[in-house]
Amino acid sequence: MKINRHGRAKVLTQQEIQLIFSQGLENDRDRMLFGVCLFSACRIRECVTLQTQDIYTLKGEVRSQFIIRKSNTKGKLATRTIPVIEDLRRLLTGYYSIAGDVYLFPGRFEGHIDHDSAARIFRKACQRVGIVGASTHSFRRTALTQMSNAGIPLRVIQEVSGHRNLEQLQKYLEVGDEQVLGAVSALSMLSPVVEVGKWVYDGQSSPNLMKQIT
Q: Does 36 share its domain with 75?
């Protein structure tokens, strides 16, 4: 958990996400900003530098996919293409009139909103709803963990996340207590069932495996 900006950003539950968007964030621009982070697993720096033309056509229609430019990625490794799922499309559809001429999330004076300003907005939103340990990076960790839990291969997730290698990606993914319990519980299928006075294998007594318990 992240405390005083130290540690790993919290992976958010669905209930916490709903609280943040319904009661924590105060306007459509901020909900759009963090909606893009959630539904694309992008970094906050990548999100604030998105250009309006990356998302919308000249007619104001939402594109089927958008790009995260190489120059705005961490390490400037490669341009990424992110499909726009229906949940994100619904958010984007009503945002075109608010978007800037150049940047999707314009700043107060010129250019785009600063990532530090976005982080302050998010911290205040979390304070309003009583969520501790989250940061703007929580959306990225939450999205990537959700993909992993859904059984999406790591190599495919890496295409979305833009990590240099799978080792870096795995550090983002959180393993829950229920998953650990489920993994260990799977071992029960390897053991015979013990009854008083004998071993029973596969539900039936087996002379070859019979052993008196003393």
A: yes
Can you give the pTM of this predicted structure? 0.76
What is the tally of structural domains in the chain? 2
Q: Which residue has the tokens 């430019």?
A: 69
Greater confidence (52 vs 186) lies with: 52
Query: Hey, what are 18's tokens?
Result: 């709903």
Helices and strands: H and E segment counts in the chain: 10, 5
CA neighbor of 19 nearest in space, from 137, 95, 130, 124: 130
Q: Please tell me whether residues 45 and 123 are part of one structural domain.
A: yes
User: What is d(CA 22, CA 125) in angstroms, rounded to the nearest whole number?
Assistant: 10
CA angle 82, 83, 87 (to 5 degrees): 120
What is the domain-level CATH number for residue 124? 1.10.443.10
Distances (CA, A) of 88 to 55, 169, 197: 11, 23, 61
Q: What is the residue-averaged pLDDT of the chain?
A: 82
Tell me, yes or no, whether 1 lies in a domain. Answer: no
Give the model confidence (pLDDT) of 130-176 as tens digits.
999 999 999 999 988 888 888 888 888 888 888 777 777 777 677 67
